[in-house]
Specification:
This protein is of the alpha/beta class and about 550 residues long. The chain contains 15 helices and 21 strands. It is globular and about 85 Å long. Bound molecules: phosphoric acid mono(formamide)ester. Phosphoric acid mono(formamide)ester (CP) binds next to helix 3.
């Protein structure tokens, strides 16, 4: 019997956000990291060697457009452990400075037989975009492999490999128990991408209690709090360590982050002394801590104003040094998995969005038939343009139901522009039949032939909840109700509102905007994850 071939499921995978690895996949990675760490501690060279890729045909490129010590150097050391080809792009003197795009730059480097990219950038969602653009480049150029793009921190979005080493360290301190965790997240939760990755990363644990400690100016954005609550975490908020210690239910794990002054505006910078005080640990707090408490910090720590003061380095609270050292081990395993060397024994299903974007969002509404089956109900006949009934044409009804007259008018102008509905007809704001207090918009287009499927998709994206009525010979002949599509893309006039997103038009990266519907009915940018209402994803007038 021949050997059964099993493809490594991680080979060529990318990591933009922590959720790109499922809980089962992360637990697999931690199990491997634990095996390697144990072998390293015991000096078991046979086991250690079994983890090495040992192949100079595997090429890793590190591209850092923001400063770094730990992430960059731990990846470089991990690559040296593996005995693979390692290259660095000098971003100070690269052709980025001549206006070259991210996709041209990384496609070029992939073409030199490099398949693992470690990228840190101010722009958010870079790795997701490169994953898409490299797939096309790979096909066009018949590459033998799919490159992996690993996010080493993108703006204030996510830092998924830091999340992996953080979770590994929490588990190590939890005796590898995944049942529960109680953690305080302290510091600059607004800008802290390592904290943002925790909104999904902490799902490694079954029961999660998170205490957020930050003054208002540094508070965790609502998007992430909503995601934590959506994941079933118990979330509490406090404005300072002082306030936190005035209550009794205190976490045994504290995760500190530094003030990210480089990302703050003048207004917040002026208050830095006060903000720092609220999130800095001091000696008088020690008595309030639970026995067995451990502190963590992704580092770097500011040497003049450390939020964890240096006198704590030699105490039992110090978890941050071990956490940092774990970084290299976790990244060794990640590189092994994404190069296809580690992972053949992983048996669970791979993660990935399985939801079809072809889900029905254009609903055909059957017309009611009057008693005796003699024609359609009068209910469907009431459309008129002013005093004149419409004989033939279309009526788009229930636009922005329940909103203000100004909002509805503005939205109708946008619909007319996006669907190119200029011409004969009119736009009205009318009261709803169900509630006289509730307003809705109606667009009439007498003589219009009807919308194509692609225009209906466009309308579903710009005006979910509205209906389209096709009028023939004075009666409604067909009626459709539109729902928010699960994925909105490939449409003129779409744009992410986050100016730091790779897809934002100001960056001229020619990234087509794309949004995914969330459980709460909002639209999250495919790249930076920012949530929008359906109205916020359109540039004015669809230009
Ligand atoms: N934790 C972390 O990302 O550190 P560096 O900025 O030094 O890489």
């Amino acid at each position: 019997m021949g050997t059964k071939f099993r493809r490594n499921k991680f080979k060529g995978k990318s990591l933009t956000v922590i959720n790109d690895l499922s809980k089962e996949e992360r637990l697999y990675l931690f199990r491997k990291a634990r095996e390697l760490k144990s072998a390293m501690n015991n000096g078991d060279s046979k086991v250690i060697d079994s983890f090495r890729i040992n192949n100079q045909n595997v090429g890793l490129y590190e591209v850092f457009l923001e400063d770094s010590t730990r992430t960059r150097e731990s990846f470089k050391n991990a690559a040296k452990f593996h005995n693979i080809k390692v290259s660095s792009l000098n971003t100070d003197s690269s052709s980025f400075n001549k206006g070259e795009s991210y996709s041209d730059t990384f496609n070029t480097l992939a073409g030199y037989d490099n398949n693992l990219f470690i990228i840190r950038s101010k722009l958010e969602g870079v790795c997701r975009w490169l994953e898409h653009s490299a797939a096309e480049y790979t096909t066009r150029n018949n590459l033998k492999f799919t490159p992996s793009f690993i996010n080493a921190g993108d703006g204030k979005h996510e830092h998924p490999t830091q999340e992996l080493l953080d979770e590994f360290t929490f588990l190590e301190d939890n005796n590898w128990e995944t049942e529960s965790i109680h953690i305080a997240l302290v510091g600059d939760l607004f800008h802290g991408r390592t904290v943002h990755s925790k909104a999904d990363g902490l799902t490694t644990f079954r029961q999660v209690s998170v205490d957020l400690i930050a003054p208002e100016e540094l508070a965790l954005p609502e998007d992430y709090i909503g995601r934590m609550e959506g994941n079933g975490f118990a979330v509490r908020e406090f404005s300072s360590i002082d306030e936190y210690l005035k209550q009794k239910n205190i976490a045994d794990k504290w995760y500190f982050t530094r003030l990210q002054l480089e990302r703050m505006g003048d207004r917040v910078l002026q208050k830095q002394h006060e903000l720092r005080k609220a999130i800095t640990f001091s000696e008088e707090f020690l008595d309030f801590l639970k026995p067995g408490t451990c502190f963590y910090h992704p580092l770097p720590r500011n040497k003049i104003h450390p939020v964890i003061p240096a006198f704590l380095d030699s105490t039992q609270l110090n978890g941050w040094e071990r956490q940092s050292a774990n970084g290299m081990i976790v990244r060794i395993i990640l590189l092994g998995m994404f190069s296809g060397h580690i992972g053949n024994d992983f048996t669970q299903k791979l993660s990935g969005n399985t939801e079809s974007d072809n889900e029905q969002f254009i609903e055909f509404v059957p017309l009611t038939v009057s008693a005796g089956g003699k024609g359609r109900s009068n209910k469907e006949k009431h459309y008129s343009e002013g005093v004149r009934p419409i004989a033939d044409g279309i009526v788009i009804d229930h636009i922005c139901k329940g909103e203000s007259s100004g909002e509805i008018r503005q939205h109708m102008t946008q619909i007319v522009s996006l669907l190119d509905l200029h011409g004969k007809g009119g736009e009205w704001v009318s009261t709803s039949k169900q509630s006289r207090d509730s307003l809705k918009g109606i667009i009439f287009r007498p003589g219009h032939d009807g919308l194509s499927i692609s225009d209906m998709k466009r309308l579903a994206a710009v005006s979910p909840g509205s209906t389209i009525n096709i009028i023939r010979k004075g009666a409604v002949q067909k009626k459709y109700r539109l729902h928010l599509p699960p994925k909105i893309y490939n449409l003129r006039g779409l744009s992410c509102s986050n100016s730091a997103c790779i897809s934002h038009p100001d960056h001229h990266e020619l990234v087509p905007a794309c949004f995914n519907r969330t459980a709460k009915g909002l639209l999250a940018c495919e790249y930076c994850g920012k949530s929008h209402t359906f109205k916020e994803i359109w540039t004015q007038g669809g230009k």
